[in-house]
Amino acid sequence: MRRRLLSLAALLGGIALTPLQAAAQGTLNLYCSVQIEWCQAIATNFQRDTGIRVNMTQRGSGETLAAIRAEGQNPRADVWFGGTGDPHLAAGEENLTQAYESPNNANLQPWALTQWNQSGRRSVGVYAGAVGFGFNTELLARKNIAPPACWADLLDARFRGEIQVANPNSSGTAYVIIATLVQIMGEDQAFDFMRRMHPNVNSYARSGTGPIKAVARGETGVSLSFVHDAVTERNAGFPVSYATPCEGTGFEIGSMSIIRGARNLTQARRFYDWALTEPAQRLGFEAGGQLQTPSNRNAPLPPNAPDLSQIRLIEYDFAKYGRAAERRRLIERWDREVGALP
Ligand code: PLP
Question: The complex's ipTM?
Fold first, then answer.
């Protein structure tokens, strides 16, 4: 009977649980830091699969960490799904999340379990993606600007006012970019680089996915983004391409954590287990159009997704750059030395 109800729900594209059934299964308060389409897809599908009612709030990784901190004594969320790995590590160190071992860990890529181990079992990897440059091929061609191939190119006068990147206070993507530059160049040189790039930056966006959408709309020529997001825009029909920096680049382990003091712990664990399954991980692409590398070994790499094994990745020091104090220090330095520039 329940199966019949669920398939009817699928047909209607809605959720066909009666209020009584939903109440019996309980509620899950989900903080979600991936793109809204994917967040909505996981909320709808989990609710459909389990009957657990989902209240979902979507915000960037830095903003979500700030919310979880502010609510530390009275947590409103049960699970934090997605977003860059560093703020998940910071949350774990600050005892804002709790340890959990899913039976589905057995099916995960090694890097997903590295995140789990480094976080004291408080965060697990759900996807990975590399940092790079997104660009609007038509806009750059019209302006006769060659696309960037290396970090060093971003200082070139041809990109004056043409680059968009996010603000690390709200965006996990922006923080990964800062940590990447620091690891490639050394800290003082990286801040010097960002100061010199500043005249070429037209805006520091709130969300990490804002700049690539601005590229797609033709509002800016170049974005510093996760390169899988460039493919999402290209698949949507925009003249967008991407490159990964010749000097090497950083990457994220997009993560998931259960909040300490979660009021709906049973539902939180059920969601966590579900989100690590192959069908749930397929949703990123199939329902959300997202092209990250999934952490479940059986979930296929979506067609035309960037292949991380073909990208020159640095040995990103997640333990160091995920430390709360290090993250705070680098963002404060960015505020003083880059964000405050006229
Ligand atoms: N959306 C997608 C598709 C991502 O891959 C990520 C990174 O984990 C984010 C959003 C995070 O966004 P933000 O930089 O705003 O924290």
Answer: 0.94
CATH superfamily for 129-251+322-339 is Periplasmic binding protein-like II (3.40.190.10)
What three-state secondary structure class fits 341?
coil
**Residue of 32, 38, 178, 207 with the most ligand 1 atoms within 8 Å of its CB, for mutation:** 207
pLDDT tens per residue, range 237-294 = 999 999 999 999 999 999 999 999 999 999 999 999 999 999 999 999 998 899 999 9
Given a cut of 50, is residue 4 above it in pLDDT? no
Total-model pTM: 0.91
Ligand 1 centroid – CA 27 distance (Å): 25
Q: In this structure, are residues 88 and 99 in contact, taking their beta carbons and an 8 Å threshold? A: no
Tell me how far apart the alpha carbons of residues 302 and 292 are, in angstroms, rounded to a whole number: 8
Q: Looking up tokens 């963002």, which residue turns up?
A: 331
- Measured between alpha carbons, how far is 73 from 158 in angstroms, rounded to an integer? 50
How far is Cα 255 from Cα 129, in angstroms, rounded to an integer?
Answer: 11
Residue spans per domain, the chain = 2-127+253-300, 129-251+322-339
Distances (CA, A) of 95 to 65, 146, 280: 12, 47, 28
Residue 210's nearest CA partner among 195, 226, 190, 194 is 226
Pick the CATH number of 2-127+253-300 from 3.40.190.10, 3.40.50.300, 3.10.180.10, 2.60.120.260: 3.40.190.10
Ligand 1 pocket mutation pick from 58, 81, 84 by most atoms within 8 angstroms of CB: 84
